[in-house]
Write a structure and sequence with these properties.
Chain B: Keywords: 2Fe-2S, Iron, Iron-sulfur, Metal-binding. The structure holds 2 protein chains of 2 kinds. By secondary structure, chain A is an alpha/beta fold. Chain A is about 35% helix and about 15% strand. Chain B has 2 domains: about 60 residues; about 80 residues, Glutaredoxin (3-Layer(aba) Sandwich). Classes of the chains: A alpha/beta, B alpha+beta.
Chain lengths: ~600, ~160
């Protein structure tokens, strides 16, 4: 590797060949402002179209200013990042962007988190010297994502993540010049596309062009309705990130404060999706063992690998992209939907109420969950099992709206019976967690032996594709793990080609798993935040008294009082589902 | 989106075109060129077939189709008229020529006459700047066109 020496703002820097000026400057604490650029190494995401020109710098001996994000360092280079010429150019660039941007900051959903707003503030722009035509595009409201392309600055991050990381291919730049816009094919709305609602486009959008559909008001309406018993469930990844919305260090666990805040908000019962995650393990784990045993007995009708089915974006992805393989994933519903089904049957019965009298709200790190709970198969006579799904960000908004000082809240415990969970339920929030939870239970159920060490380090990590072999008392089980739909696609293509060596595969649509979900506080491209959330999840697991789903006493009670056993008729009715061959584009219309 | 049913034999020909270019995503523009030659335009269904054959997203194909003014998603007339709006033609009065075509045909740029005879589009330079202003009708090139010539030219068809 060639080493290159250069000088940036009078400071000597030594970098490897191929390093850009932007990265070299960052390594010595000089933060050159940028806008379209975003790089997340561990997630194979790099967006540097060099289009916005905000990161321009002056290179001695070079006539024109150079974009720092695309210009590689060369030996002896002398770079200045804040000369008068540079600052003037940068201001002009930002003013030009602002001249075609709605000045709606006061009411914009992204206000305070918007990178364009921050840039304009940092540059001290108080006046826009350019007036001209403004772009006007039709709005697009899907159940999960809102597109307001008037606010788009054509950074193309959404297009990059949708195509290169997720390989969903919904978004592309279309038209040219002033008319250009990032849009689905034929400029149709997202809900007429193969969009999975993973929400990663929202997670990387620098402005308010892509945001979540906000349902906080629906929650408030339910809470003030005296006829309704309002039950809330919180997904595992929420507690590892909610604190960030209140200025806490990433990776701070706020489980107790979150429960306390939800009680203050007026929810009648504060329950945990982790309980339903434990239930998922009972059903999915049993289904896996059943399939595995029959497979090993030579039953040719059984297909392996089994694929996890907790992630609604992943489910919609394979329904569109691999419709011929819809019999491979586990039929187990996701924890969100299992919770809804149990809350509106078992729990409603305990309360002596009709299912319609209950409103089930879910707090999710996810945008696809908003879509999932609207799927027709998850409703009875039009009454959805989960009525409203809000994101971590929306919960933070609700808490602020209710004048709750989050940081000063005391810890409180979830309510019973649907609030008790094990460490296995908690780790559903990170890549590798669902399969580790399943292995903990499947091992004991299959071998009849006690599992001494519940941590399966070989299943953990942040690599996009991982594989591990787990020893089930002499039987070697090959496990595959993918996060990010592009990685999932690779595993699926192997399965389709008959080349897959795996018995079971865990898939989560979002990079990092649910901790990196599209509904989480914005990470602004900082992957360390995801890693800290992941550590927090494993910390929560380690601190749990019970760490295997089948040992959850309330799960045991649910089976003995109500469901009978895993895969019973009632379990099938309430906790399992089926998948659809989703149509292709021209058939959708 | 208006639904168009492409004849089965045309679909097959389209797949043959893709195969001719080894279903290579890098040949997308060439494939679209031939597809438009085959059908006269590129309706949504055609773009979906091309996307499927070349294993690229439909959004990407649509992005390319909308980027280049040569590609059209609307059926062209029997005699497609293109007015060059390149710099040389423009300064020599192409806009007035365009206005005259619009007036006489009573259509806007990108539209086709109700009888399907003529369609009108603009393009940027056909490489005959010495003859500016230039128009093309089908494969035929007309040079040094003035608004007064428009009626005579149309009467040829």
């Amino acid at each position: 590797m060639n080493i290159i020496k250069l000088i940036i703002d009078d400071k000597p820097v030594v970098v490897e060949q191929g390093t850009t000026i932007l990265e070299a400057a960052k390594s010595i604490g000089i933060k050159i402002p940028s806008l379209c650029y975003m790089k997340m190494d561990d997630l194979n995401f790099e967006n540097k179209p060099g289009g916005c020109r905000v990161c321009v710098i002056e290179v001695e001996g070079r006539r024109n200013l150079a974009p720092a994000c695309k210009t590689e360092c060369t030996e002896g280079m002398v770079v200045k990042t804040h000369t008068v010429r540079v600052i003037n150019a940068r201001r002009t660039v930002v003013e030009l962007i602002l001249s075609d941007h709605p000045a709606e900051c006061l009411t914009c959903a992204k206000s305070g988190e918007c990178e364009l707003q921050e840039l304009a503030q940092n540059l001290g722009i108080r006046e826009i010297h350019y007036t001209g035509e403004q772009s006007h595009y039709k709005g697009d409201q899907s159940p999960a994502i809102i597109r307001e392309m008037d606010k788009c600055i054509m950074c193309r991050r959404c297009e990059t993540i949708c195509n290169e990381v997720q390989t969903v291919g919904v978004l592309s730049a279309v038209n040219r010049g002033f008319e250009s816009v990032v849009a689905p094919a034929f400029e149709m709305d997202l809900d007429h596309s193969v969009c999975t609602y993973c929400g990663q486009c929202v997670a990387v959008c620098p402005t308010g062009a892509l945001t979540e559909r906000d349902y906080t008001w629906k929650v408030i309406e339910a809470l003030v309705d005296p006829q309704k018993t309002v039950v809330v469930q919180t997904a595992p990844a929420v507690r590892a990130a909610l604190g960030e919305a209140f200025g806490m260090e990433p990776g701070t666990l706020v489980t107790g404060k979150m429960v306390s805040a939800l009680k203050k908000l007026g929810f009648d019962y504060v329950f945990d999706t982790d309980f339903a995650a434990d239930l998922t393990i009972m059903e999915e784990g049993t289904e896996f063992l059943d399939r595995l045993t029959r497979y090993l007995d030579g039953d040719k009708s059984v297909k392996l690998p089994i694929l996890t089915s907790c992630c609604p974006a992943w489910v919609k992805f394979f329904e569109h992209q691999f419709p011929e393989m819809i019999d491979i994933p586990s039929t187990a519903k996701s924890p969100q939907q299992m919770f809804g089904a149990i809350a509106k049957s078992y729990f409603a019965k305990k309360l002596n109420k009709k299912r319609e009298d209950l409103v089930v709200v879910s707090v999710m790190p996810c945008l696809a969950k908003k879509y999932e709970c609207t799927r027709e198969e998850f409703a009875i006579n039009g009454d959805a099992d989960v009525n409203v799904s809000i994101t971590t960000r929306e919960l933070a908004r609700l808490i602020r709206n209710a004048n709750i000082d989050f940081a000063s809240l005391d810890d409180e415990d979830f309510d019973q019976p649907l609030g008790e969970s094990t460490g296995a339920g908690v780790i559903f929030g990170t890549t590798g967690g669902v399969i580790e939870a399943a292995v903990r239970t499947a091992y004991e159920l299959h071998t009849g032996k006690h599992l001494e060490k519940v941590e399966f380090e070989e299943l953990r990590g942040m690599e996009g594709l991982r594989k591990a072999t787990v020893d089930f008392d002499g039987m070697k089980l090959n496990i595959g793990i993918a996060h990010g739909l592009g990685n999932a696609r690779k595993l699926l293509e192997d399965v389709r080609a008959g080349k897959s060596e795996f018995h079971a595969i865990e898939i989560m649509a979002c990079p990092g798993g649910c901790i990196g979900g599209g509904g989480q506080p914005y990470h602004h491209g900082n992957v360390d935040i995801l890693k800290k959330r992941q550590k927090a999840i494993y910390r929560e697991d380690a601190g749990k008294a019970i760490r295997k789903s089948h040992e959850n006493p309330f799960i045991q009670e649910l089976y003995s009082e109500f469901l009978g056993r895993p895969l019973s008729d009632l379990s099938h009715e309430l906790l399992h589902t089926h998948y659809f061959n989703r149509k292709k584009l021209s058939e959708i219309e | 989106m208006a639904k168009v049913k492409i004849p089965v034999n045309k679909v097959q020909e389209l797949r043959v075109i893709c195969k001719k270019f080894n279903n290579d995503p890098g040949e997308l523009i060439n494939v679209l060129h031939e597809a438009q030659n085959l059908l006269g335009y590129l309706p949504a269904e055609v773009q979906e077939i091309v996307a499927e054959e070349l294993n690229v997203s439909v959004a990407h194909v649509y992005g390319v189709v909308t980027f280049y003014s040569f590609f059209s998603m609307l059926p062209k007339g029997k005699h497609p008229i293109s007015i060059c709006m390149g710099t040389a033609c423009y300064v020599r009065g192409a806009e007035k020529v365009l206005e005259e075509f619009k007036r006489r045909l009573d259509i806007k740029v990108g539209e086709t006459t109700p009888d399907g005879k003529f369609s009108l589009s603009c393009l940027r330079c056909v490489g005959a700047c010495g003859l500016a202003p230039v128009i093309t009708i089908g494969e035929r090139v007309y040079g040094r066109v003035s608004p007064e010539d428009v009626k005579k030219i149309l009467d040829e068809y």
